Amino acid sequence: MVRLAISVEGPTEERFIKMVMVPYLQQKEIYAIPFTLSRVGGNVSFRRISKDLNNLAGSFDKVTTLYDFYGFRDKEASDDKGSLEEKIVECVASPLRGKIIPYIQMHEFEGILFSSPEAIENNIRQTGLAEWAGTILQQFDNDPEKINDSKETAPSKRLLRETGYIKTVHGPNIAQEIGLTVLRAKCAGFGEWLDRLETL
């Protein structure tokens, strides 16, 4: 049995972990519990990450993260997914770093929802959304993790502007309908993270 803490960006990701990831990992004797960053979420910064991960690492066998690249406050212009993940490990006390499995979602959680335009339409219940989401996906080489033109056209901004999307309700529900098999196949970064967790 492995006790795994998952530090998440906010309530949407927390609900996703509880609904989709926890039951799956439990089948592999990995008992995961999500914790919203600083208990309130949002405003992802190394100061807040350091405090939370150091505390969690003292109580769990392993600690992983689920933060969006898009909303990371402290990132520099030169930072990419890999460098941010390295910095996450470095903000934890040296004796605890072996417990940390850092993960940054490109470019944000809502991106992976575009893995299934049909699931988006089924859950938001707005006719034409499957075609709309499919067109966006095609513009990014059918790779949901590439969707992020700008602050105005990030995946969540597209959904909030064009649909009746409610983050904490629709997001996890859409992901649950899609399922981990499809999510990991369509989203390479997410798939690699899940692979790492399964090896625990």
Low-confidence stretches: none
Beta fraction: 5-15%
Order of helices and strands: EHEHEHEEHHHHHHH
Taking the sheet with the most strands, its summary is:
5 strands, parallel
CATH architecture field of the largest domain: 3-Layer(aba) Sandwich
CATH class of the largest domain: Alpha Beta
Any idea what the radius of gyration is? 16 Å
Number of strands: 5
CATH homologous superfamily placement of the largest domain: Probable inorganic polyphosphate/atp-NAD kinase, domain 1
Q: Helix segment count?
A: 10
**How helical, in percent, are the residues?**
40-55%
- CATH topology value of the largest domain: Rossmann fold
Q: Domains counted in the coordinates: how many?
A: 2
Overall body shape: globular
| Class per helix and strand makeup | alpha/beta
Distance between the termini: 9 Å
The overall pLDDT average reads 95
Give your account of this protein's structure.
The structure is a single chain. The chain has 200 residues and is an alpha/beta fold. The chain has 2 domains: 2-105, Probable inorganic polyphosphate/atp-NAD kinase, domain 1 (Rossmann fold), CATH 3.40.50; 109-186, no CATH class. Helix content is 50%, strand content 12%. Strands 1, 2, 3, 4 and 5 form a 5-stranded parallel sheet that branches. Helix 1 (11-26) runs parallel beside helix 8 (167-178), helix 5 (117-124) runs antiparallel to helix 6 (129-139) and helix 5 crosses helix 8 (167-178). The longest helix has 16 residues, at 11-26. The protein is globular, with a radius of gyration of 16 Å. It starts with a strand and ends with a helix.
